[in-house]
Amino acid sequence: CRQDEFGYTGIDGEQFATIERALDERTIGHNPERLNLMKGGMVYSNAVTTVSPTYANEVLNGGAAGWLRSTLTRPEVKNKVRGILNGIDVVEWDPSRDHLLPANFNAQFPDGKAICKKFLQRGLGLDENPDKPVIAVITRLVPQKGIHLIKAALFRCQEKGAQFVLLGSGHCDGEFKAMAEQQFKDHKDIRLLVMYSEALAHQIYAAADIILVPSMFEPCGLTQMIGMRYGAVPVVRKTGGLADTVRDVDSHAAGEGNGYTFDGSDEGSLHSALDRALTHFKDQRSSWAELCATNMNTELSWSRSSADYVALYNSIAMP
Asked: Residue 221 and residue 241: Cα distance in Å, rounded?
């Protein structure tokens, strides 16, 4: 904002118009130069939080801070940055009580998930085959979400005989609309739903065998956690909160992994992780069922996160 606009708070903005305080460095030499309230907030706050430990590290050390990098490298700012993982609303997202589903289920009584899968396949006009894995993408269609990797996954699923269901919209949705109306119109295994529907999102989570989140960057991400809550196995790009919540089955001890991860931003990296998940689904159904049950039992609520916030607030409280 302009310094005179800041003056409406009753405080003269000029005193904050230095690089060390709140001057927006992108406007140096402009008329007028402006203040950036986010920068000022970080400089003057007692603590700075973001929504996952890995994203905090990426902001401080990995280039994710953008033009605020110079501010965040200052020791007095850097030393007060913390990453606290988000939780999900486990009342809203509860497959054992979700009234939007055709059948309810949980880790102890999982049969309802198969009913939800058949319900979605029938409702979307897909092949009703329990042996075909449903790979779901529920997302905003924007570059951050890895549009090229979503498309790569779509064609990989087609190649592998899996089913692919996308629900989302955004300013990159034109190509998906075209594919939905032409190449994949009435396809038996592919459905591209370029729209938003809360009810349909619940039903897709409940039906999905795999939830795909190939983001370029992701401060936390809720999709992978909701997917696990509904008994899906996440396949994610290892960044931000995705790295903090998904542990690769093939690189962790038995019982510790909960999904499949990849590091690169290329199609080959995605294919490797997705192929491993598809092979697990096809060849080790008993192990897959155990993995899904473990994911449904995972603690994903705000309980631990809220305790971390309370501890942080207590640590900076005035005596």
From this structure: 6
Show the 3-state SS of 250-268: HHCCCCCCCEEEECCCCHH
pTM beyond cutoff 0.90: yes
Calculate the CA 14 to chain-centre distance.
Answer: 40
Question: At a CB cut-off of 8 Å and minimum separation 6, what does 263 contact?
Answer: 237, 238, 269
Partners of 23 in the β-ladder: 35
Render pLDDT for 185-236 as a digit per residue (tens, 0 to 9): 999 999 999 999 999 999 999 999 999 999 999 999 999 999 999 999 999 9
Length of the chain: 319
Burial class of residue 82 (count of CB atoms within 10 Å of its CB; 0-12, 13-18, 19+): middle
Strand order of the sheet with strand 233-237? 190-194, 163-169, 134-140, 210-213, 233-237, 260-262
- DSSP letter for 312, please: H
The CA–CA distances, whole Å, from 254 to 106, 250, 258, 262, 284 equal: 22, 9, 10, 19, 14
Measure the CA–CA gap between 192 and 139, rounded to whole angstroms.
12
DSSP-assigned letters across all residues of 66-81:
GGGHHHHTSHHHHTTE
